[in-house]
Write a structure and sequence with these properties.
- The chain is mostly beta strands and 121 residues long.
- It contains no helices and 11 strands.
- The strands form 2 sheets. Strands 2, 4, 5, 6, 9, 10 and 11 form a 7-stranded mixed beta sheet that branches. A 4-stranded antiparallel beta sheet has the order 1-3-8-7, with no helix packed on it.
- It is globular and about 40 Å long.
Length: 121
């Protein structure tokens, strides 16, 4: 079955950097758009970033544009989220997801279990 496993979360201070990884299995990775989402306590899950099948296209939420970078390695079936200049409001559980459609913010069908990112002020 399809599995998406996130890693790399942790506790950091404001201004620090963190790189999340999401390893996929059970699917033809290069056929899927990959996305990152996050959910803070008491808030709805929100879109963070997405990358197209080949990696040539990306999309970012305004709140992270210029600070976060999404990349993928189709040979390793892995998508990454490099997070720089972290802020306390970036604190959330971060999820990766895969979708069979083009670059978009919805329509994702497979989800990981999430990894906690906590940014202290």
């Amino acid at each position: 079955q399809v599995q998406l496993v996130e890693s790399g979360g942790g506790l950091v201070q404001a201004g620090d950097s963190l790189k999340l990884s999401c390893a996929a299995s059970g699917l033809t990775f290069s056929f899927y758009t990959m996305g990152w989402f996050r959910q803070a306590p008491g808030k709805e899950r929100e879109f963070v970033a997405a990358i197209s099948r080949g990696g040539g296209g990306t999309d970012y939420a305004d709140s992270v544009k210029g600070r976060f970078t999404v990349t993928r390695d189709n040979a390793k079936n892995t998508v990454y989220l490099q997070m720089n200049s972290l802020k306390p409001e970036d604190t959330a559980v971060y999820y990766c997801a895969s979708g069979p459609y083009g670059l978009r913010r919805d329509g994702y069908i497979y989800w990981g279990q999430g990894t906690q990112v906590t940014v202290s002020s």
